[in-house]
TrEMBL record:
<dbReference type="InterPro" id="IPR013217">
    <property type="entry name" value="Methyltransf_12"/>
</dbReference>
<dbReference type="GO" id="GO:0032259">
    <property type="term" value="P:methylation"/>
</dbReference>
<dbReference type="GO" id="GO:0008168">
    <property type="term" value="F:methyltransferase activity"/>
</dbReference>
<dbReference type="Pfam" id="PF08242">
    <property type="entry name" value="Methyltransf_12"/>
</dbReference>
<keyword id="KW-0808">Transferase</keyword>
<keyword id="KW-0949">S-adenosyl-L-methionine</keyword>
<keyword id="KW-0489">Methyltransferase</keyword>
<feature type="domain" description="Methyltransferase type 12">
    <location>
        <begin position="53"/>
        <end position="150"/>
    </location>
</feature>
<dbReference type="InterPro" id="IPR029063">
    <property type="entry name" value="SAM-dependent_MTases_sf"/>
</dbReference>
<protein>
    <submittedName>
        <fullName>Methyltransferase</fullName>
    </submittedName>
</protein>
Length: 266
């Protein structure tokens, strides 16, 4: 594990908090949108696909892909989250499409026998916990076959500023975070590095990949201060429809809560 990265106890010790966050409207919207963007990014690949979800936790991102007929390997450092992934897939009747691997990213420098053979490698909500983004990206690219897809996602530093100023009406907090190197993540109670999409794009290019898609996930939800209305099914439906329309459009994607970049390995 890279110096300064969170350990197993950080993630596995807060499994209940993570599941509660997933069940909230903002969590559900995040997963719904990522299922849509990822499906777009891999639509050109002939299936069924072999997919590695690095730092995939409880398997929430892999489940829709398994449901579409693909095989999913979830790699994570947290045994409790991997057990939750196995339970999630079993409940959906998809246990035969899941493999779990207990490993840290640093173990994957040749640590998986399938290195270079996956069709798709996902690394969602992980790189902001890593000290060396370029090395992390190089590891991910090494797991995917030529012509395969790598997808990376992380919190967008721009929304740190906008949400403080607009949602919380706190200009001082927005100014304070503007050039900050880290912010505090509430769900896992741990600092998160503020990683720009351009940093990952440069690392992908250095590793021999060509960017195909640039998405923004939750372009507007995090600017709505009224959390109660987000629980209203009709409002949520309309918001999800809007967010789906915005996720690949400039300028809206540029300030979304999360950026997501997908690239093809040369």
């Amino acid at each position: 594990m890279t110096d300064g990265d969170p350990g197993t106890d950080v993630f596995g010790g807060r499994t209940e908090q993570w599941r509660a966050w997933q069940d909230e409207p903002w969590g559900r919207l995040r997963y719904s949108l990522v299922a849509t963007t990822t499906a777009r990014a891999v639509a050109h690949l002939p299936g069924p696909l072999r997919i590695a979800d690095i730092g995939g936790g409880d398997g929430a991102d892999g489940l829709p892909l398994a449901g579409a007929g693909h095989s999913v390997t979830v790699v994570d450092v947290s045994p409790p989250l991997l057990r939750a992934a196995a339970d999630r897939f079993a409940e959906a009747g998809l246990a035969d499409r899941l493999r779990t691997v207990h490993a840290d990213l640093d173990d994957l420098h040749g640590g998986l026998e399938e290195a270079g053979a996956f069709d798709v490698v996902l690394c969602l909500d992980v790189v902001h916990y890593r000290a060396d983004v370029a090395s992390t990206v190089a590891t991910l690219v090494g797991l995917v076959r030529p012509g395969g897809v790598v997808s990376v996602m992380a919190p967008n530093p721009a929304m740190d500023v906008l949400s403080a100023a607009v949602r919380r009406t706190d200009p001082a907090a927005a100014l304070a975070v503007l050039d900050a190197l880290t912010v505090h993540g509430v769900t896992f109670d741990h600092p998160m590095r503020r990683v720009e999409a351009a940093t990952v794009e440069a690392a992908l290019a250095e590793a021999g990949c060509t960017v195909q898609h640039r998405f923004g996930v939750r372009c507007v939800m995090d600017l709505v201060a009224d959390d109660e209305v987000k629980h209203d099914p009709e409002f949520y439906r309309r918001l999800e429809e809007l967010e789906t329309a915005l996720c690949e459009r400039d300028p809206y994607r540029l300030t979304a809560r999360f950026w997501q970049v997908t690239a093809t390995r040369g």
